[in-house]
Amino acid sequence: MGSLDGVFSTISGLAKSIVSLGLELVLVFLVIDLLFPGTTDVVRNVGTVVSQFTNQGLVGLVILIAVVAIASDD
Where are the domains of the chain? Predict the structure, then answer.
């Protein structure tokens, strides 16, 4: 079981690193889009994702909160 725990730990660490890199890139592109409007369309894309969740009503809002909580879990 010890080696299996090591595998899951490695995969979990890799997934967290990839998600962290993705969030950092989104923030960089957000700053670029604010400085030079229309270059990356990150603001519009984030708004589209949020509106897709919230268009589903309360269930979509709960799922959006859950996704944000999971993504920000350290």
Answer: 2-71
